[in-house]
Design brief:
Blueprint (H helix, E strand, L loop, with lengths): L10 H19 L13 H11 L3 H20 L14 H13 L7 H23 L7 H8 L3 H27 L6
């Protein structure tokens, strides 16, 4: 089998995947407010891969809590607190869309469509929250969409790059698991 999303079955492997995704989010999210010295934020990919590999709702809640705590830490370190408005609550369904997109991905061939659909839903939900509840300086819906739509390709490409690396790592590890030791 080329791709088995159910291959992460042992508690040890699930814990390893969980720790790797937590570290990835922690290492990349803190700088997502605009610092150029840090890698791009992997949060969208973490939610997608978490849904794909770990699936449990309590783990989604753990990742959302980590994202929130990391954002609070960023603000404590001097990042402007503009994103903390009632709009922040829209990140729950936005990230949930990524989780569901990952959890419902049944094959490697469908992963690109799931990534694109999850990213588009997340971008729309999060920006709807910002438009409705954050200070958008009286912008109309059309001017707001025009102002933010240009950011989507970066979000999509970043997420797709991280997801690709994750899926490639899974394929390599699956291959190593099915190849007899004497042939390695």
């Amino acid at each position: 089998m080329l791709f088995d999303k159910n291959s992460i079955t042992t508690p040890q492997l699930r814990l390893l995947v969980l720790m790797a995704l937590v570290l990835l989010m922690g290492a990349t999210r803190l700088g997502h407010f605009g610092e150029y010295a840090s890698p791009p934020d992997a949060s969208w990919a973490v939610f997608f891969l978490g849904g794909l590999w770990l699936r449990k709702l309590r783990i989604f809640a753990l990742f959302f809590g980590l994202a929130f705590a990391t954002d609070l830490a960023a603000v404590a370190l001097g990042t402007p607190a503009d994103c903390f408005s009632p709009a922040y609550a829209f990140l729950i369904p936005a990230y949930g869309a990524l989780w569901v997109a990952g959890a419902t991905t049944e094959s490697l061939l469908r992963a690109p469509v799931a990534v694109a659909a999850g990213a588009a839903a997340t971008f729309c939900i999060a920006n709807l929250g910002m438009f409705l509840f954050a200070n958008t300086s009286g912008a109309t819906a059309a001017t707001y969409v025009t102002a933010v739509i240009g950011y989507f390709p970066h979000y999509l490409f970043t997420m797709a790059a991280y997801v690709t690396v994750g899926l490639m790592a899974q394929l390599v590890l699956q291959r190593r698991a099915v190849v007899p030791v004497e042939h390695r």
